[in-house]
Amino acid sequence: MVKSFAPLATSAALLVAAATAASVPDGTWPTSTGSVQFSEAHVVQAGEVFDGKMQTYERSDVTCQGQTESSASTAVFMLEPGATLKNVIIGKNQMEGVHCDKHDCTIENVWWDDVCEDALSVKGGTASSVTTVTGGGARSADDKVIQHNGFGTVKIDGFYGEDISKLYRSCGTCGDKQRKVSVSNVYVVNPGNAVVTVNKNWNDEATLSNVWVKSSGDKVKICRWSQGNANGEPSILGDGPSPPLCQYSESDVHINGDVSQATGNSTSSSSTSNETPSSSTGSSSTATQDGFDHLVTGVGVCRADASQPESSETQQQQAEEATQQTQQSSASASSKKSDENDDAKNEEQTVPPSGSTSSAESATPSGSSTSTDSATKSSSTGSATDTSSNDSTTQSSTAGSSTQSSSAGSATNTSSKDSTTQSSAAGSATQSSTTGSTTTGSDTQSSTAGSTTQSSAAGSATQTSTNSSTNSSTSTGSVPDGTWPTSTGSVKFTAPHVIKAGEVFDGKMQTFDRSDITCTGGEGQKDTAVFLVEAGGTLKNAIIGKNQKEGVHCDDHDCTIENVWWDDVCEDALSVKGGTASSVTTVTNCGARSASDKVVQHNGYGTVSIDGFYAEEFGKLYRSCGDIPRTVTVKNVYAVNPLVSVVTVNKNYGDKATLSNIRIKTSNGNSDVKVCQWSQGGSTPSNLGDGPSGTLCQYSESDVQINQ
Predict the structure, then answer these.
(1) Beta bridge partners of residue 89, listed in sequence order
(2) What are the entry keywords (predicted)?
């Protein structure tokens, strides 16, 4: 029987129409710009915009176990209300993908490469909560792509699904809660079950428009409706248009049509009251209890399958999620319920508005010194917004309307991490949140307008990218006490991370090294480094692991290195090159150990300022190299067992070294330590002497304390 479609009368509820900018995707999958693995779920805080720069994010400690029930602890990202996740590819090593456990999240241009249990879980919230999913896509989903357990509305616009069971499922076992979904401008290839499944008895409402489906099968279910069952499995009642349960018309669905002819100027509507909304754009069918199969011709054929059990619909997450993330906590311990049950007492609590912010404090290691100079490095105010810096090259998104951004050049794999979780960026930092000001030591950069900020777990420091910088010249760096910082996590890069001019990269005291390089001795190049810092770039709060050769490169000088620790120096820890006579690179409150040769190698022009450095078992803390005059200032240093000297400079090239407040400890109690050594520069430099010597080595006896 062929059904005719008639317009549905508009309800009395007030509707707010919102034109979306998303276009129907063409089925092209984005190219990953790099890979980042987390050892635990990354928390994107309220008000934060996390821009992943189209890198692939997954877990280092989790693999997909199919449809085995799991919890938020196996996710890659956990979003707080008001958080935004954008330009990210979710890899296969995870189970729960992305969690939005208190609703009101923004998901933009996020792609799930191989869905495990669910791609996105939306929980909590209130009847007015809205989570938006714009652009992006998912493939290889045995069951649901988007699981909606909470209250409120999920809006899906411009999404691509391939070889999936269901694009959206309103939880059929979570209890009597009304849920709403709007789906527009989507392209779904081979949906195994339905595009959308909702619960009739719990008054769900689904609005669909501009839905494009490609299927190798004979029949396609667009909107399916079930009898929700909080005490068991839901049963399927039917499918097809059935306002207000499934609101769409025949013209809203295109099956096996030419998607290149799709238009993306859709309008989605949402009700501002709890009353039943009117039909979606275009006409809707009259109310019916019957289900529909859409033939490949697009003609609806009536079918009766009432009370048919729904396959793959199981109760999820029956045990409480024992997560450590603060967003998981409920109002009180006694009110905690399983996530799948979505206890109303938890769901209807007040949630922070999407523009709310959280403070971000600098993460410094226990016992390490921090600079407190008055020159404020950067701050952002108000609610977090995504402000992308200008990359020389951008990569357009291949599906959806969102732009994918990545840097061009020799190294594009960029990553930033927080103390309990990790984030990543390739190219300039465009991750944005709110933050307090951050101060630096001597010769620091002071950022100005145009900053973008990334912050992650509560209490952790922020990452800020700025557009301009200036130099100040004072420091209050203190002598370190020899305490080594504790790593908060591990991140491995497959290529050097580029920190662009004006960007502040905050590593949140995680350990960064390479997955493709080990220290083998001998000369390395910048492509064996962990970080490449451009002139005006800042690297802070990072531990450099042993799997690398060149550590950190500052190849155009004028870099800021703050609270960076080299755990096992290979060839060099920091290489400073290029620049001009007025260039200044600052190294403040850092540390390095196990360096058979140099810690800081200065090949360029200008000045290197080292303040508040801890060095242990090293050849030389600083070495001047080349036939041009260089200047170094070294103060507030604690050096344990220097093998050669603290500083070595070239007399014949007019180098200048100034040292003050140098503390040295030798394990054998020997006080015969070379503090400032001077050489005859050349292809085979020769040592001429050591000790104070005019402008070459400027310090006094009182500036150095040995074994005190």
Answers:
(1) 56, 111
(2) Calcium, Lyase, Secreted, Signal
Above 60 in pLDDT, residue 548?
Answer: yes
Q: Which of 263, 288, 309 is the last residue of a domain?
A: 309
Contacts of 140 (CB under 8 A, 6+ apart): 113, 114, 115, 162, 163, 164
Output the furthest CA–CA distance in the chain (Å, rounded): 101
> Which position has the token pair 């691509």?
160
Contacts of 469 (CB under 8 A, 6+ apart): 445, 446, 447, 448, 502, 536
Question: For residue range 327-338, what is the model confidence (pLDDT) as tens digits?
Answer: 333 333 333 333
In sequence order, the β-bridge partners of residue 86 are 51, 108
Lookup result for tokens 């024992």? 322
Alpha-carbon distance values, 166 to 96, 203, 334, 410, 451 (Å): 16, 19, 34, 41, 40
171, 312, 151: which is closest to 229 by C-alpha? 171
User: Cβ neighbours of residue 129 under 8 Å, at least 6 residues apart?
Assistant: 81, 103, 104, 150, 151, 152, 153, 351
What's the total number of domains in the chain?
Answer: 2
pLDDT at position 311:
40
- Give the domain range for residue 595: 410-706
Residue 353 forms part of a structural domain: no
For residue 286, being part of any structural domain is answered with yes
Pairing mode, strands 219-220 and 160-170: unpaired
Tell me the C-alpha distance between 67 and 51, whole Å.
Answer: 29
Considering the domain boundaries, does residue 361 fall inside one? no
The reply to whether 355 falls in a domain is no
Helices marked H in 129-260 — which ranges?
none
Nearest residue to 605 via CA among 577, 633, 632: 577
**Measured torsion, CA atoms of residues 276, 338, 419, 114, in degrees rounded to the nearest 10:** -70
Q: What is the value of pTM for the model shown?
A: 0.46
